[in-house]
Design goal:
about 210 residues; five-stranded antiparallel beta sheet; 1 helix; 14 strands; about 40% strand
Amino acid sequence: MALSFPYDLGFLDQCLLTERVALALQRYDERSGSGDGRMWSAQLALPLWGATLELFSTQPALAREINAKVYGLDGMSKTFLWSDRHYTGPASGVISGLGGVTVSSIRADRGAIGVSGLPVAFNLSVGDYLSIAHSSGRYYFGQFVEGGVANGAGNIAAREIRPYLPFGVTVGSRIELVRPHFKAMVTDFTPFANFRGRWGDNAAITILQKP
């Protein structure tokens, strides 16, 4: 049977046993300056999320599985769905009743959204992650940089998010708050090594969001 891409969201859950996930938004800006101290910057490409993850194996078969599945991605040419396995959902601790959350408005500069379909009095916290599927297989992944509390209708007016929304996201798009995720590719991989009678535990993988 042929492999199907992207790998599903659970593909790395049993393989990536890292205790530390350093997820960072990587910017691609160019800077220049003048002799009098003035500085300019320009965004050359969209910011992308990335992380380097240390891998640990509890058994040889699991180590081989990690190696094989990553090789199956053919470098950066294939993708998989990824979420931070240590992220437990919104800071409020509420994860029920969030299956119908949608975008209710988008600010003109696409740096803020309104949210509807929340439980009444739901507390949206600064730093909560969100993801939105759009444009036939693409994913927006971001963070709220402004919080709020849902009113009696389950709505929160426009709140700042970063990075800015792509144009494929529209009013009515569903928002994932419990297990936000994005499509990722592997940019670097150090595989598990085979030692006599055991497998090493020094593997590592670097991932980058596929826009």
